[in-house]
Design brief:
Protein name: Membrane protein
Distance between the termini: 40 Å
Pfam families: PAP2_3
Structural class: mainly alpha
Shape: globular
Number of strands: 0
InterPro entries: Aur1/Ipt1 (IPR026841)
Helix content: over 70%
Strand content: under 5%
Organism: Pseudodesulfovibrio portus
Number of domains: 1
Order of helices and strands: HHHHHHHHHHHHHHH
Largest sheet: none
Keywords: Membrane, Transmembrane, Transmembrane helix
């Protein structure tokens, strides 16, 4: 028991900067809600399923190792090797990931609350400016119009819709992978520091300053049909096969009208956190191995294109997210490189 307590305290020490940042973000939410008088929007338990699914993920990995021992390597005595393997995995991997797995759901719950408060703190006013900026940057055209000759086919749209919907699953898998990873402590911490920096500074701070709803909500918000062509196309595809993005957009708008906080609630366009987080996945993948690097880079491109094609975001939302995420990634690398994490190096 003393050994276990020592290991847990060491893991807390290694993650102390991450822990302090998350606690500061929680305090910021409480302070904002006190300022606005919206105490009912304080929530830290909307993503409580994350630790449970992480345990299941770890158990699946453990089962795979045990099956490999029993059927392939067959060490003798088998049970002794299994017990020793479990002890190493539990102490080195599971307890290393525990601070992340306990605090990240709290952080994401606070983020959801912050996102739902954006129109309360600063009503949506930037959409017309972003619409004009889109045309200015793209030769007088809207980006969705430029993409339509390439993507405007039901099969292509449904493929993009499927991959875009897989974003949440992909995020969980990358988070679990890095939470339990021991191969490069600096890269691991760089990822998690980048993660909380991007979601808080970009997804909460910048999103509040440049409060905007996005193309799919343009008509509902402003009464203008600037994106009618795109939305009519998506609805025509939806009549044949479900376009999940449309039902998700309807759900978010209803929650917005009801001023209700729920899992995944909140509307915000600039910057795109789907693009920002997908870029983080690609960056950590590229710096680990070429296989996850290629796979997650392709996923990032689909998210970037899909954010425009499915009406979620202006292309500018993605451009800004990419630039600022790369900056925060670099800063997080410098930060992580100065922490006592073990072997590793600062990564660009």
């Amino acid at each position: 028991m003393k050994r276990l307590a020592t290991i847990i305290l060491e893991r807390i020490r290694q993650h102390r900067h991450f822990i302090i940042y998350v606690l500061a973000y929680m305090i910021a939410l409480i302070a904002v809600c006190a300022w606005l008088g919206t105490y009912h929007m304080i929530s830290f338990d909307m993503y409580e399923v994350l630790p449970l699914t992480a345990v299941l993920f770890f158990a699946a990995v453990l089962l795979g190792r045990y099956l490999n021992m029993a059927l392939v390597t067959r060490p003798r005595p088998l049970l002794s090797h299994m017990r020793a393997d479990f002890k190493v995995l539990f102490e080195e991997r599971f307890l290393t990931g525990l601070p992340i797995l306990l605090l990240l759901p709290v952080f994401m719950s606070a983020f959801t609350a912050f996102k739902s408060l954006i129109p309360v703190m600063n009503p949506y006013t930037w959409d017309p400016a972003l619409y004009r900026l889109e045309e200015l940057l793209h030769g007088g055209y809207q980006p969705w119009e430029l993409l339509m000759p390439l993507l405007g086919y039901p099969a292509v749209t449904l493929t993009i819709n499927f991959i875009y919907a897989a974003w949440l699953f992909t995020m969980f898998m990358v988070v679990y992978w890095q939470a339990f990873s021991l191969s490069n402590p600096v890269l691991r911490m760089q990822f998690f520091l980048s993660f909380v920096l991007c979601w808080s500074l970009l997804g909460s701070g910048m999103a509040t300053i440049f409060s905007s709803a996005g193309p799919c909500f343009y008509e509902r918000l402003l009464g203008l049909d600037a994106y009618q062509g795109l939305m009519q196309y998506l609805q025509s595809v939806d009549e044949q096969h479900p376009v999940w993005a449309l039902s998700a957009q309807d759900m978010l708008w209803k929650l917005y009208e009801l001023h209700k906080l729920a899992l995944g609630s909140g509307i915000s366009a600039l910057p795109s956190m789907h693009v920002s987080s997908a870029l983080l996945f690609a960056l950590v993948g590229v710096r680990t191995h070429w296989v996850p690097g290629v796979a997650l880079s392709i996923f990032f491109v689909f998210i970037l294109v899909g954010s425009v094609h499915l009406g979620w975001h202006y292309a500018v939302d993605g451009y800004v997210a990419i630039i600022l995420t790369l900056i925060l990634w670099r800063l997080a690398g410098i930060w992580a490189g100065r922490l006592p994490l073990g072997e590793g190096r600062i990564l660009d």
